[in-house]
Here is the input.
Amino acid sequence: MREVDPLEAQIGDWMQRFASMPDRERQLPDPTTMWVKAKLLQSQALAERASRPITRVQIAAYLIVAGGWAALVTWKWTTLSAWLNSFTPSHIILGATGAEAAASLSLTFFAALVVLASVTVMLAFHTILAEE
Amino acid sequence: MTADALTFEAPFALRAATSRRAPKRPMDEARFELFYRKTAGRIWSYIFRMTGNTATADDLLQKTFFRFLRSNPVIANDDHLRHYIFKTATNLVFDHYREIKRHRERVTDIPATAEARADRDDLRHDMMRAFAELKPQERALLWLAHVEGSSHEEIADALSVKAKSVKVMLFRARKRLAGILEKRGLAPETGHA
Here is the structure.
């Protein structure tokens, strides 16, 4: 049999006394409550994990739409700024607000504008409905 | 190995040997209740002795069991399950210390609690203070070795250290505690404790 080191024995005794001292004044939580809470947390974690890809796709969609708008505005910035600057009282009176500027915009631009606007509206609806 | 013994799916060093023989069944509520009633008190004492704070012990006890259940324990071996829960509690206590350090607070606030002030001259409090002077890892080492009777391998796994180092670390921890007890007049030779 192994000879017990006096230090080990001394500390062992002290630890045993220390451990046996009363410490808890309150009752431990009920195991049923613990079980229910744990299951609830588990299902919450599962739901969070399941919705993570959707959130990622949503963020990517926001970025793509924002990028699309930025690209569109950059592409036709000269024409768009001319169109915006044409909103003067004289033009409004003459009823020719931005007519020349709009005429210079291509069909592709209008198609892109419609697509981007639709996607933006759809994304906005999706965000609002998902939150609700 | 009986079918009634318990184990769990979470990875740890000693699982492989028993898990092959033991039937794997997920732990149900009744099993959990049995296991909880058997271990919760001991886990609470361990966390309380490690942190010196009852509220922290309550909080970390709940977290320990939540994490335990999240690991989807399955029925197999009782010892391994007990070992795993102590490992989980140890990790949570160490995380707690890291969090405290991050907030630049004192690691042990034993004298600050109302409960501690009430029995300042009590032997229990003296023992708590002496134990609190040790580093968290030393406290865990001594508790697991002397109170829980864990093997060096189990301690090494719980503290994420090499099994070979445990003997030396234990020796140092014992020596440090003996020094603290001597300094505080709590050593057995003094006849106080």
Q: What stands out?
A: The two ends of chain A are 71 Å apart (CA to CA).
